[in-house]
Amino acid sequence: MRVIQTVSELRSWRTTQAGGSIGFVPTMGYLHDGHLALVRRAHAENDMVVVSIFVNPLQFGPHEDYARYPRDLERDLRLLEPEGVAIVFAPSVEEIYPPDFSTAVVVRGPLAERLEGAARPGHFTGVATVVMRLVNLVQPHRAYFGWKDAQQLLLVRRMVRDLALPVEIVPVPTVREPDGLAMSSRNVYLSPEERVSAAALPRALFAALARFQEGERNAEVLRQTVRTELAASPLRLDYVSVSDCEVFQELEQVDRPALLLAAAWIGTTRLIDNVLLDPGKRSR
Ligand code: AMP
Question: Which of 137, 172, 207 marks a domain boundary?
Answer without folding.
Answer: 172
